[in-house]
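---------- Forwarded message ----------

FYI, see the FdtA/QdtA family cupin domain-containing protein record below. Original note from H. follows.
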Amino acid sequence: MLSKEILVKNSGWVELPQISDERDGVLNIMEVGKNIPFDIKRVYYINHLENCVSERGKHAHKALEQVIFCINGSFVLTLDDGEKQQDILMNRSNQGVILGVNLWHTMHDFSSGCVLLVVASDVYRESDYIRDYDEFKQYVENS
């Protein structure tokens, strides 16, 4: 079931201010210290997700924090903190979800033209990833 309230641990909503412009379009503003809860060291986006049965993510992080946005289209973000799971419909360009530590996340059910934008607290380090769900469960239980 899709929900607006985030119930899992190590997560929450980020809402970016939007300014409508008489010249057309909407400006979304992202600022460290105001609506992003960490210094941004990496930005990446995922696009060309034309296959609605694709899945992305399917991992957790030990130390990295991220905020994920859907800047075009929609997708379902599944969060799992080791105790609770939750599906969140991502379809507003100014609303992001914090992907904190020890939080398994999967993105799926992409609409045509979907574009995801992610800001991260650190550079890529493979050693920070937990890619096996059973290992994730054990890691969370021992944390």
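H. also flagged this: Residues 76 and 89 are 5 Å apart (CA to CA).
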